[in-house]
Specification:
10-stranded mixed beta sheet, 7-stranded mixed beta sheet, globular, mainly beta, 2 helices
Length: about 250
């Protein structure tokens, strides 16, 4: 059984997607929640269909080509994780456009997980491509950086698209926007629909506060993939010869 579990983990990791149980995240009210059946995302993923996903701290994942959201997508960007999605010309880094499609982003306690979305020419970083509106985007956590292509908003619509709508950021986060690589304009009315505030702003960063940290991962430990393995659907992290679950509790 153990060998089968390890083989299953290896096969699903190589495919780019795998299911994880008991994944923690901070919800809209700032409370820790856990979710089962969450799909792990690495750089071979190109479509997120309706459901729950997590970017784990396995190193810097780079998505070449648009990461498309289809249906109601919930994405947890775990502490220490980093995912960069870069779209081609006329394509957003992360596409959230069209009726029935949405993206809700969560972080964890440190709010240190990074999601970087870069749109191609005429496309938003997060939202619509050329001539497409980007709507229904909610950020409850993580460190989010969006870079819109020429003539497009960082978070919202692409060039020539209809006006964006339903773009929300939790009130505990700071939104900085502007037209330079280091935006300095602070948008304070978070918790409201920010679509009009972000329209035409080519660069946007969203940052929150940090609290406690999980154990660091020692990549040199054992033979696990980047210090991590799956055991009956539970993520196990190795550090200093010990095992921890996804919320930092030692597993003996």
């Amino acid at each position: 059984m153990k060998k089968l579990t390890i083989l299953f983990a290896a096969l699903t990791l190589s495919a780019g997607l795998w299911a994880i149980n008991n994944v923690p995240y901070i919800d809209a009210n700032g409370q820790e929640q856990h979710r089962d059946g969450v799909t792990g995302v690495i750089n071979s993923t190109d479509t997120l269909k309706a459901g729950w996903y997590v970017v784990m701290p396995t190193g810097s994942e780079k998505q070449t080509g648009t990461l498309v959201c289809q249906g109601e997508v919930h994405l947890i960007v775990y502490d220490g994780a980093k995912l960069t999605a870069t779209g081609a010309d006329n394509k957003p880094g992360i596409e959230v456009s069209g009726e029935g499609n949405s993206l809700t982003i969560y972080g964890y306690t440190n709010q240190s997980g990074q999601l970087i979305a870069i749109g191609g020419a005429n496309a938003a970083g997060i939202g619509g491509g050329n001539a497409a509106a980007g709507s229904n985007i909610t950020i409850y956590g993580g460190k989010i950086t969006a870079n819109g292509g020429e003539n497009a908003s960082a978070i919202g619509s692409g060039n020539g698209g209809d006006a964006a709508s339903n773009i929300f950021v939790a009130t505990s986060f700071v939104v900085k926007a502007g037209s330079a690589a280091n935006p300095t304009t602070v948008i304070t009315n978070t918790g409201a629909d920010l679509a009009s505030d972000l329209a035409g702003k080519q660069y946007v960063t969203v940052e929150g506060s940090a609290s406690t940290a999980l154990p660091n991962v020692d990549d040199a430990q054992g033979t696990m993939h980047n210090g991590k393995t799956l055991l009956n659907g539970q993520l196990i992290i190795r550090k200093d010869g010990k095992s921890y679950n996804a919320i930092g509790q030692e597993v003996k």
